[in-house]
Design goal:
single chain, 248 residues, alpha+beta, Alpha-Beta Plaits, 5 helices, 31% strand, globular
Amino acid sequence: MGQRFVMTVSYDGTNYCGWQRQNQQPTVAGVLEQTFFKTFGQEITVIGVSRTDAGVHARGQVATFVTEVSLDVHKIKFAWNNQLPATVLILSLAPVSYSYNPFLHVEKKIYLYTIFLQRPLPFVCRYGWYVHMPLAQKDLQEALSLFVGTHDFRSFSTGDERGEDTVRTIDSIVVEQVAEGTELRVIVTGQKFLRHMIRRIIGAAVDVVVKQISLDVLKKALLEKNAHQQFFNAPPQGLVLYSIEYKQ
């Protein structure tokens, strides 16, 4: 039957086509599986709690796998990390019961989105969105606050849900000024999100603020439940899955 493990993984998603394994495409789960086989000679299937998109990063992705490798957990982690590329790092690894389900009892996921207000240095530009138009923290906070609570977010989804329930609850959205005022950090907290949802609401809020459009446009879009909105779509490189927290 083998032993199930749970791990926390950090990665730079720049050169990956997302988390989920894809044929002939580099993905984070694919790299984890390939390097495990290279290191231990056994195939595994890595299942992540959040399927981050192409170009999106993670500080605290949670994933599980089952293996019959019987080495000490510290040795597994050490050897595996030594084979992984510099863009992927296993932060923690622990054995759990075979029946453990990482999707159960998730209390909240915390995402961070970085917006550069000044053109960033070349070695950090891959971790944020440079908005070259004036963007005030107070105005962005006011716009994003409209999305807090329980709403039908179909207007801010991919449009590919095909009957899927698109009602979600955002617990909080906080906009912080960092890096001596040259960056804004948006912190979004909730239990569950639709694909592209965070990027679309941030893009729409920025669009409305920089164009000085009434916030009623965002309210109207929410009510329309139409995924074909003509707002900015915030680029993926600014988004980081910071952590996944569980109920105690």
